[in-house]
Amino acid sequence: MHYLGLDIGGTKMEAVLLSPQGDYLWRQRRPTQKDSYDAFMLHLTRIIDEARAVSPEPFSVGIGLPGAIDPQTELIKNCNCLVLNGHDLKTDLATRIQQPVWIANDADCFTLSEAVDGAGAQADTVFGVIIGTGCGGGIAVHQRLLQGPNAITGEWGHNPLPAYTPVFDGPVQPCYCGNLNCIETFISGTGFARRFPGELTSQEIIDAAENGNPQACAHWQHFIDAFARSLASVINILDPQVIVLGGGLSNVDRIYHELPTAVVPYLFSNSCHTRIVPARFGDASGVRGAAWLPGLNTRET
């Protein structure tokens, strides 16, 4: 049995076919079809048909997307590919391709990938963190995703920033979710850049800090402190063996030198033995995790 993974993003769709050992057998990237749900489904089934044409044996189908299945209705919710919201994608696709389909949030897929054969492969408990446009998360225990009744496991980015004060953290930050001072508004790549004066990108701010710009240096140090406070609240509850970082900001090497030390003062411990590491598979972790869903997750049509 091979494993087909599909990663559905707001602008692109990626598909990979993996062997049981995790080797790539086939890989494709296409623009996401967002004109209508029917057009999206046609596009998706064509990709699966192409995979069938090249696969020497049957495969399972797993999908990661930036949204979730509502546990009460089984319909997609909170997806930035808006044509999917309100539809039973899992059942509709399974009916069209005549085989079971597994679906999970993209941050969960990222976490699963890194827990199975990525940077957290030897750990019992992995907390996956994406610090990119948003600030998602997922939890894997013994290489299986934790899933709860609200379909929000690991959504730490929409907890309020711990110990927020206007003097230290600046003005109140409204979040698109309707709440104030969500962690995402401070430590996502989007929030990091938005709160810095001017129109600089995250990378330009980081470069300025590396070159000694005082304002950029202060902004970076606040980012590390806010990140540390936020992770400490997770470690105090979950105590994971490994925290794996993905997303654009995860590519900044100095995070892995500064963050482990910065976390300690906020922990209910005088030291931190949780490893904080970059993702092994980078941007490919999401689609690889989607591929692993059928073998390591219990949600099935």
TrEMBL record:
Alphabetically ordered keywords of this record: Carbohydrate metabolism, Kinase, Transferase
GO MF annotations in UniProt: fructokinase activity
Transferase as UniProt keyword: yes
EC number per UniProt: 2.7.1.4
Source taxon at top rank: Bacteria
EC supergroup of this enzyme: transferase
Full protein name: Fructokinase
Organism lineage: Bacteria, Pseudomonadati, Pseudomonadota, Gammaproteobacteria, Enterobacterales
